[in-house]
Structures are given as C-alpha cells and as structure tokens.
Amino acid sequence: MAAVDDLSFDPWDPAFVSDPYPAYAELRERGRVIYFEPTRQWLVPRHADVSALLRDRRLGRTYQHRFTHEDFGRTQPPPEQEPFHTLNDHGMLDLEPPDHTRIRRLVSKAFTPRTVERLKPYVRRLAGELVDRLVREGGGDLLHDVAEPLPVAVIAEMLGIPEADRAPLRPWSADICGMYELNPSEETAAKAVRASVEFSDYLRELIAERRKEPGEDLMSGLIAAHDEGDRLTEQELISTAVLLLNAGHEATVNATVNGWWTLFRHPEQLAALRADHSLVPSAVEELMRYDTPLQLFERWVLDDIEIDGTVVPRGAEIAMLFGSANHDPAVFAEPDRLDLARADNPHISFSAGIHYCIGAPLARIELAASMTALLERAPTLALAAEPRRKPAFVIRGLEGLSVTV
C-alpha cells in the first residue's frame, strides 16, 4: 500500500490548487491506489482504473440503500446539517438503483437528443446577446458577464423558474456545492444548510403553483410524469430541481473560464482557433480535459474490492481523481500539451457509468455557443488582469476573469 506523506498532494495548499497536475504525475507513478489519511480516502489517479471503477457496481454514491450508518462503520451526520443531507440524499446523483433508475428515467425525457437540439437556437441567441453586451461595455468579467448567465438562464428556463426569481440561484448553488469539498468547515456547512432551506422553500412554493397551473416547462412535466406507475415524491422533485440547477451550470461556468484562461496562456493555440472556428467542438473537449472542472469524484465501497493487490475494504471511500486521469500518458499522447485539434480524447470530465452526466449534450452546446460567440463577436478578446483561482480543490474555478475587447 502506498502512502502520500512524502508527496506534494495537498488539496488545501494554494500552490497545489493552482496547479495540481505535477502532483498527479507523482501519484500515478506511485501506484494505482494510494491511501490519504487526512480525508481517510483511497486515491485512484490512473485513467483505466477511474473509468472501470465508475462502472463498478461494488461501489456506490450512497450506502444507505444497503446499510445503516452503524453497519457501515460511519457516523450519522450532525443533526444541524439535516436540511442539506435531506436535499442532497434525494437527488439522483447520490442515489443508487432502483431509485436512481426511476428518477433518471423520468428526468431523461427532458434531455433527449431531439429536445436538446431544439434548445440550440435559444442558447446561441442568448450567448450572442451576452457577448454583444460585453463588447458594448468594452470588456468586463467574463465569469459574471457571460459564463454564469448563459447556463443559469438555460436550465432555469427549462425548469420554468421566472426570470425575476433567478438572482439567488447561483449563490444558493455555490453555498450548497461547498459541501462537496474535502473536509468542509462548520462555516461551510452552515452556509450549505441555510441555502438548502431557502432553495427548498422556494421550490416548494413553485411546485405548488405548477400543480395549480401547469406550464410547458420541465418542472410541470416532472410533476405530471408517470412512467410504469412511478412518479416523483415532492422531496425528490425538489432535490432533482436543485441538482439540475447546480450541476447544470457549475461545471459549464468553470469550464468556460478555465478554458479561456488556458487559451490566454497558450496564444499559439488561441491563434489557431481564431483562424479556424471549425476547431470549436474539439477545443471544447480538449479544454475540459486539460483543466478539468470537477477534479475529484467519490464512491463508497459496498463490497471489498482489490486494486493492484491492495484490498480496499467495505466501508472505505474511494476518491477518483478526474484531473489526474485526464492527464494520464497511458491514454493521452503528451497529456500536458494543449492540443485543440486532439482527435482521440476519451476524457472523463462528464463521469461514466450510470451516473454519467445527463446534461452533457446540453453543456457541450452551451460551451460551443459561448466560445463561438466570443470568437466571432469579440475577435480581439484579451486578458485584462491575472485572475485569482478559487481556493476550492474539488470544484475547480476562478473568482473572475477580467477581459478587454
């Protein structure tokens, strides 16, 4: 069993958070599974293992469908965190079959290829309007002016959340997602609980309104959904809406600003993209690989598994390092080189298996739309100031990205 005491893997060190990729290379050299005492997790850094484990049914996002906390050797979450855990534990991201299967089947009706394709004109129009405003202002913050408003508006529009109600969505999401970091503080937990209560209360009122007056939106559709006799409970409705809103924009926002910050640091690649807009689809994939928005994804070990001769016991937690897997030289030629024309790019930024991101096709449309709009309407887009990276490790992003046009 390898340990990381003498390695540079330190998810609370600003220098590591700024550039974790050299430390990942050390981890991949050290072994296929490494125990990390500070979080009591088994780190998995290689692409083949991460890809296989995401599909391994001996692992689960939850264990409560099979075990109590005590049976599993875990402690009950503090009672003051109950609102967060109630909200989180009823969303399909943290459920396993059969509940996961039932909810995903109902939600997937809103994300069919045909439905997502129909959103393209709306997404492109909105991206163009946001970029035009940025150009009129002579520049601004790419995060707040383009990257955030686009996916938030799209998923809110899909769910039927009125425009006047959308301002708190991003702050609520940010506070809730703080709990997905490693060893969150009491202050982080308190913010997440408050946001969970406020977000849930708002959605409960919206659901009541949609029950009285259904619309053409996704929320109305989920309320009415029947599939082989199944339907969502009110808590599942609330948790599903929150998950769609949070997951539906967090990764896209961070992929956008991480991507442009990467492009500004690789002027020859940016010049190639500006010269050939047909590179946009492969550029989206490569930028998500090169600087992965979600660096780590966790699974509980439901039955003992063996990785490279090491038995990881039931009750343990595995941390799959997406950022490391996406830089594995066993899969990607010259993984630390940005190549916007990279053809063979099996990155796992959208996960895999039954928890593969249901909104991945929509995220790709949004990322391509904003990139295309910026290339066409802001052809001289340039960095105005060095950005500050958010201190969080798991969800990788920037505080802002100041640009001129």
Low-confidence stretches: none
CATH classification class: Mainly Alpha
Order of the strands making up the biggest sheet = 1-2-3-9-6-4
Percent helix range: 40-55%
Output mean pLDDT. 92
Report the end-to-end length measured between terminal Cα atoms: 52 Å
SS summary, helix count: 16
What characteristic shape results from the CA principal axes?
Answer: globular
Write the element-wise H/E pattern from the N-terminal end onward. EHHEEHEHHHEHHHHHHHHEEEEHHEE
Under the CATH scheme, the architecture is Orthogonal Bundle
Structural class: alpha+beta
Can you tell me the number of structural domains? Answer: 1
Residue fraction in strands = 5-15%
The H-level CATH homologous superfamily, spelled out, is: Cytochrome P450
In total, how many beta strands? Answer: 11
Major beta sheet summary: 6 strands, mixed
Radius of gyration in whole Å, from Cα? 21 Å
